[in-house]
Amino acid sequence: MKPIIQLIVAASATIAFATSAIAAEAPDALVKRISADVIETVKTDKDIQAGNRKKIMDLVNSKILPHVDTQKMTQQAAGRFWPQATPEQQKALTREFTTKLVYTYSGALSTITNETVEFKPMVAEPGATDVEVRSLVKSARREPIILNYRLSQGPQGWKIYDLNVLGAWLVEANKSSFTSEINKTGIDGLIKKLTEQNQQLANKPVKAPK
């Protein structure tokens, strides 16, 4: 076998193995790994703790977003209006909603100090493709915070599509505002409003000055 062909075969085998490993990772194991990785990164990076937006955004984009099904999250928030949107509108809505989520929750990362996460045993039927992973974020400064995840399994493995913080699911919390805005200004109006909100968030400091 020629060297170049050997290289292609080896690369193909490596990709296939990596894809299989991702698909085989259990949903609770995935969430635990992401949480540990993100918390450890923040605790050891003084720039993130100081509110460095670029580093926080890089962290979110590299370690969190690849494991989030942003289209499904946006689709569920849009509800019955999603099929009415054109492919271009769906793409723009997903992009702006994802950007809003990144801006909104990136500030929380810079506040991490000595937090730990306790995961509850996952309860799911054998072969289930939609599960909930439950956890508590513990800190010496405040009461534990409920943080639960909904994940679904697809060709790329398990992906998060909803979060529950203190009893409120993220998708449901945005669904009513999406519905209200679409009823008033249409889908393009909602996209415009999200874009404006993102511009405001982009100009807002990640951490409030002391």
TrEMBL record:
<dbReference type="InterPro" id="IPR008869">
    <property type="entry name" value="MlaC/ttg2D"/>
</dbReference>
<keyword id="KW-0732">Signal</keyword>
<dbReference type="Pfam" id="PF05494">
    <property type="entry name" value="MlaC"/>
</dbReference>
<protein>
    <submittedName>
        <fullName>ABC transporter substrate-binding protein</fullName>
    </submittedName>
</protein>
<feature type="signal peptide">
    <location>
        <begin position="1"/>
        <end position="23"/>
    </location>
</feature>
